């Protein structure tokens, strides 16, 4: 490395091949936007189907939680009425 190259070095680190050695950990946050028109149709259909399945599963779970809550409420009401009027 000549004196001029050394003076123009500016802290650049070179690897064994003489190329710039970038740090392994990226310190920048990069946001990559994908145009919806560039996505293939089969991926759009697959995403839509996955979304519909997710919403259906969420609705089924909400329905079971509602039925379970109603069952617990009914059981509590029955026990309350039995204790109050029979025992």
Distance between the termini: 99 Å
> Any low-confidence stretches, pLDDT <50, length ≥5?
none
The radius of gyration over CA amounts to: 33 Å
Structural class: mainly alpha
Overall shape: it is elongated
**Which oligomeric state applies?**
single chain
Largest beta-sheet characterization: none
What is the number of helices?
Answer: 2
Question: How many domain regions?
Answer: 1
Strand and helix order: HH
Question: How many strands?
Answer: 0
Strand content: under 5%
Overall pLDDT level: 85
Q: Helix share of residues? A: 55-70%
Transmembrane segments: 49-82
Keywords: Membrane, Transmembrane, Transmembrane helix
Region (Disordered): 1-24
Please provide a written account of the structure:
Keywords: Membrane, Transmembrane, Transmembrane helix. Residues 1-24 are annotated as: Disordered. The chain crosses the membrane at residues 49-82. The chain is mostly helical and 87 residues long. The protein has one domain (3-85). The protein contains two helices and no strands.
How would you summarize this macromolecular structure in one to three sentences?
57% of the residues lie in helices and 0% in strands. The protein is built from two helices and no strands.
């Amino acid at each position: 490395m000549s004196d001029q190259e050394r003076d123009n070095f500016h802290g650049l680190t070179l690897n064994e091949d003489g190329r710039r050695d970038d740090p392994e950990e990226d310190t920048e946050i990069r946001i990559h936007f994908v145009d919806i028109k560039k996505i293939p149709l089969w991926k759009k259909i697959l995403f839509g189907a996955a979304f519909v399945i997710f919403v259906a599963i969420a609705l089924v779970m909400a329905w079971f939680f509602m039925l379970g809550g109603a069952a617990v409420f009914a059981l509590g009401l029955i026990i309350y009425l039995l204790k109050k009027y029979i025992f």
